[in-house]
Design brief:
This protein is mainly alpha-helical. It has two domains: about 5-75; about 90-300, MetI-like (MetI-like fold). The protein is about 80% helix and about 0% strand. The chain is built from twelve helices and no strands. Helix 5 (about 95-130) runs antiparallel to helix 6. About 25% of the residues are buried.
Length: about 300
C-alpha cells in the first residue's frame, strides 16, 4: 500500500540538503536523525507490545549514535563533552567506585529518606483527614515548606545530622513528604458521599471505612505522589552531598570531579543516577499496576 509523503518529510529533505551545502558532516547527522525519525513514526503506528518498547529503544540509541558521531566528526574536546564510548569505558573502569557511590547515595540516603518521608506523609494525611484543625492549619504550612529551596535546606540538615547519609536522608524526607501528602489527602476525598453513606448504613467504623473504601480509592492518587517522589529523592540526596559528605557518594564524586576536569567521571555518575532513578520509577509503576489493576488508568 502506497504511503503519502507528508510536508514534514519534504521539509526534512530540504533541511538536509541545505546542511549538505554548509557541511557534509552536519548533513550526515541530520540524515541519520530524520531517517530514525521516519522509522519511529512508522513503528509508532503499529499495534502490540513490540512497537511500544522498540520506539523508545530506537530513539535512545539514535541519540547516543548522534552524540558519538558529533563528538568524533567535529573533534569536540573531552573537557567540553566526552563521547558515549569514553563514558562507557570510564564506567567499566570505575565499577567499584560507582557501586560504593550508588550504595551511599541511592540506597542509604535516597531510599531511607524516601521510605520515611512517604510513610510519614501517609500517616499525616490520615491525621489531617481526621482533624479539621490540621486540614486548615497544616496544609498551608506544608505548601510553604515545600517551596523552600533545597540549597537552603541541605546545609541546615548537614549541621543538624552530620556529614554522613543521615543528613541526606533528612533532606529527602523534606522533599518527598509534601508531594505525597497532598496527593494522599486528595485521594482520601475521592470517594462519593453515597459510598460513604452506604458504609455508614452497614455500621462501619471510621477505620473500617478507611481500610475497605477510602484507602483503596486513594491508591491511584498515592501512587502519583510516590512516582513524583522517586525522582525527587535521588536528586535531593545528590544535591545534599554538595554541602558536606564523606569521601563517597554521587554528589561528592561529581563535585570532586569538577575540580579535576574529569568530565567522563561526571557523566558516568550521571548515567548511574539516571539508570537508578528510571529503575526506581519503573518499580513503583509496576507495583501500581499490580495493586490498582481495577482502576481505569490500568486497563487496556
Amino acid at each position: 500500500m502506497s504511503r503519502a509523503i507528508s510536508p514534514g518529510w519534504w521539509l526534512a529533505a530540504l533541511l538536509t540538503a541545505g546542511a549538505a551545502l554548509l557541511d557534509l558532516r552536519l548533513a550526515a547527522l541530520m540524515a541519520l536523525w530524520f531517517g530514525a525519525w521516519f522509522l519511529n513514526a512508522c513503528l509508532a503506528e503499529g499495534r502490540g507490545s513490540l512497537p511500544r518498547w522498540l520506539v523508545p529503544a530506537i530513539f535512545g540509541l539514535t541519540l547516543l549514535v548522534l552524540w558519538e558521531l558529533a563528538v568524533r566528526l567535529f573533534a569536540v574536546s573531552p573537557v567540553i563533552l566526552p563521547a558515549p564510548s569514553v563514558i562507557a569505558a570510564r564506567i567499566g573502569a570505575s565499577l567499584p567506585t560507582l557501586w560504593a557511590d550508588f550504595v551511599q547515595t541511592a540506597l542509604k540516603g535516597a531510599l531511607t529518606g524516601y521510605i520515611i518521608g512517604c510513610g510519614a506523609a501517609v500517616a499525616t494525611a490520615i491525621g489531617i483527614d481526621r482533624s479539621p484543625f490540621l486540614q486548615k492549619g497544616l496544609l498551608p504550612v506544608g505548601n510553604f515548606v515545600a517551596a523552600l529551596p533545597i540549597v537552603g535546606i541541605a546545609p541546615i540538615m548537614v549541621m543538624w545530622f552530620g556529614f554522613d547519609w543521615q543528613s541526606k536522608a533528612a533532606v529527602v524526607v523534606v522533599m518527598v513528604f509534601f508531594p505525597v501528602l497532598v496527593n494522599m489527602v486528595a485521594g482520601l476525598k475521592a470517594t462519593e458521599p453515597m459510598q460513604r453513606d452506604l458504609m455508614a448504613t452497614y455500621n462501619a467504623s471510621y477505620w473500617q471505612t478507611l481500610w475497605k473504601l477510602r484507602f483503596p480509592a486513594a491508591l491511584p492518587f498515592l501512587f502519583n505522589g510516590l512516582k513524583i517522589a522517586t525522582t525527587l529523592a535521588l536528586i535531593g540526596a545528590i544535591v545534599a552531598e554538595f554541602f558536606g559528605s564523606p569521601i563517597v557518594g554521587m554528589g561528592f564524586r561529581i563535585n570532586a570531579s569538577i575540580g579535576q576536569l574529569s568530565l567522563d567521571m561526571i557523566w558516568a555518575e550521571i548515567a548511574v543516577a539516571a539508570v537508578a532513578g528510571s529503575a526506581f520509577y519503573g518499580l513503583v509503576a509496576l507495583i501500581e499496576k499490580r495493586v490498582t489493576f481495577w482502576h481505569p488508568s490500568q486497563r487496556r
